[in-house]
Amino acid sequence: MAISVDTILQRMITDAENLDPSLIGTITQGTQTYIRFATAASAIWGAYKQLDWTVDQIFPSTMSKESLEKFATERGKDPDGLTGAELLSFVLSYLRKPPSGGKPTDYERWALETVSAGAVVPITPSMVSGTSFSVDADAFCNPKDKESIAFSVGFASSSRYVKVDFGEPKRISGVGLGFTTSRGARIRVLSSADDNVYAVQGTFDASGWSVLNFSGAETFRYWSFSIETIDPLESWQTPSLHDVKCFGAEFYTDDETQERATFAKAMKNPYGVGTVGILLAPVTLSMKMLEAVRKHCEDEGPVAPKEIFVSVQRETPVNVKVVLTLSGAFNNETFQSDVEKYFAELKAGDMIVTAQFVVFAIKNGATNATVLTSVNGAAYTDAATIEASADQKFTLGTLSVE
Questions:
Q1: In terms of residue numbers, what domain contains 394?
Q2: 103 domain-assigned
């Protein structure tokens, strides 16, 4: 309420003089009545201000930062380091999409609040070798690409292995491995300091993605994977279909770091009724982090026969070529910045509308523009829109202006 102490005081004096005309002209500054009225006016003004503040705290857009922090803290959100705008965004999202224990927004919230401790030790294809069947080093280093098989092993493959050479001793606190099999199997992980004598550090005997954590970090240069046991083939099984197929591995350190997703999108029934798909970003998230999200969502979710799949969004580069029609100066720097911002704001599943680039061109001095695009290195076309699949996010490749 926009009212001052003086306004309240003058109203009180006017009311008093109306009630008792003999007081007219006697309530002046310094008199006892004036002092009492001024004190009361100040108290009333304070009550008005408190009322205004209380009303402001009802609506998120007018809340004080302290109230936003209190709201977030009471709902399990750590407000440290968050700006007022970020806190307001959290409060609005919480109020508009309240937790219910099963909506897509609940899975997104659970995913974003999940944290995975430790760091992933990077491995490159040049570090990977072995005697196993068709070792695909690229797939081995990218376990999130489950469609590609890193290596496969069968019943007579006990002497075959896949080896990782870090080039120098590395402190490793855990190993993750993913494999699929339709028969019982166990894969062992070994380590060596000199590539001659290897010691078994543990085994994996569960199909899917598993993590083997060591009680104390192990420091070795060489690590390898080989088959320990595998059930014989049944009469109806063939090796090409029923060998153990591994889709990649990860190595972890005990660094005091944390992984956290920056974006989450939940998809209902992506793999049939009763399934939930959770798409995360950035693409650099580890399989360990994806598994942590799956486990957290499984623990928090409703008691129901629901299968949860977690993956990272696929990023597809789009090259953009813009041919300008000019009649004067063109601000190329601002134009490029506008296009980069457009791509940065795209989310998984968002389409590209190329007319927007024409708008940017005209905004920066062109009279018209022709836009050609190339998706993932394909030939340039003049498509008006480029559709993305649900798990696909477009990123800016090259941007050329002619």
A1: 316-401
A2: no
